[in-house]
Amino acid sequence: MKRYLVAVAIGLVALMPATEALAGKDLDAVKARGVLICGVAAGGLAGFMSVDSKGKWTGLDVDVCRAVSAAIFGDAEKVKYVPVSGQQRFTALQSGEVDLLSNNTTWTLTRDTALGFDFTGVTYYDGQGFMVNKKLGVKSAKELNGATICVPSGSTTELNVADYFRANKMTFKPVIIEDVDQIRGAFFSGRCDVYTGDSARLYATRAANVPAPAKPEDFVILPEIISKEPLSPLVRHGDNQLADIVRWAQYAMIEAEEYGITSTNVDDMLKSDNPSIKRILGVTPGMGKALGVDEKWVYNIIKQVGNYGEAFERNLGLSSPIKMERGLNRLWSQGGLQYAPPIR
Fold first, then answer.
1. Which CATH number do you get for residue 211?
2. Are residues 88 and 174 in the same domain?
3. Residue among 277, 144, 304 at smallest CA distance from 222
4. Residues near 165 by Cβ (< 8 Å), separated by ≥ 6?
5. SS3 49
């Protein structure tokens, strides 16, 4: 009778004590400085990053910076925001001018490898679309043969348009402009027939930047989505701990929403008997030590910034001026793509 040695996976997890995260030079510099320097888009983008007359920045991408600050310092407001253009942003990160970029940057292979960056997690799942003046009578992007199209320089946008028009045997005339405000101005003045970009950018522009006497309803966002645009914060290669903190700050906001932990009930949730919630909020210690931050890191994020759903609704949702559906950015349990690995 033959004997067989069979390895059976029985689902047991080794209970190993959490070890202290190894410090990195970039994180050390942030801590020594006492402030996180976050690169945001020059010209801003309503719902994602915009600044008011008092210099206060708000938006979904801004909330990521605030969450990281809350995790590192216990204070979401220890952030300096540095506006950078589409062309400047990567140089600013490579040179150390900023600690991280949180400015609607698409996660691609070459940016993740050849440029020496680490993308940390998708903040917003998007795709490129087209906006036109309603008076053109255009209903589909496939009716845009020969159109003049405003595109931002130094982005994936231009390449996506070229691929789309080539695939559909159409031609277009690109008007390549670096400054976001100049792109908007060129489109609204009629210099371009079409404004193309991530659909979230189009909705934000239509909601917040249409010059009088024109109205938002005078402009139509066409139905075609021509690309995948997973938008993610990014940091430099070389400091795994800083990348981990940014990544897990994002995941903490998503996991908090999954467990119904909000900025308004987080104090009550500290009393929960749910082992997962106790671990997430630091009542059961270990996760903070593993990440190299205070055990209350998630508590501080949720108390001061909110969970992902709160941040989305406040900045982009139907109750905000942008009035966007969550779509792909719903939780995985609600048919969307937002999914966080477990904090354990």
1. 3.40.190.10
2. no
3. 144
4. 144, 171, 172
5. strand
| Residue 216 belongs to domain spanning | 128-227
Same domain assignment for residues 236 and 326: yes
- Please report where in the chains the tokens 């500290």 appear, as a residue: 270
How far CA 151 is from CA of 34, 84, 157, 181, 237, in Å, comes to 38, 17, 7, 12, 29
Tokens of 229: 């645009």
Please indicate, yes or no, whether residues 44 and 105 belong to a single structural domain of this protein: yes
Q: In this structure, are 197 and 79 located in the same domain?
A: no
**In sequence order, what are the residues at sequence separation of 6 or more whose Cβ sits closer than 8 angstroms to the Cβ of residue 28?**
none
pLDDT tens for 326-342 read: 999 999 999 999 999 99
Which DSSP helix (H) or strand (E) runs through 250? helix 240-258
pLDDT in tens, 74-108: 999 999 999 998 889 999 999 999 999 999 999 99
Please check whether residues 252 and 114 belong to one and the same domain.
Answer: yes
Contact (CB, 8 A) for 107 and 122: yes
**Closest residue by Cα to residue 124 from 222, 198, 51:** 198
Structurally, how many domains does the chain consist of? 2
Cα 314 to Cα 125: distance, rounded to the nearest angstrom: 17
> What is the model's pTM?
0.86
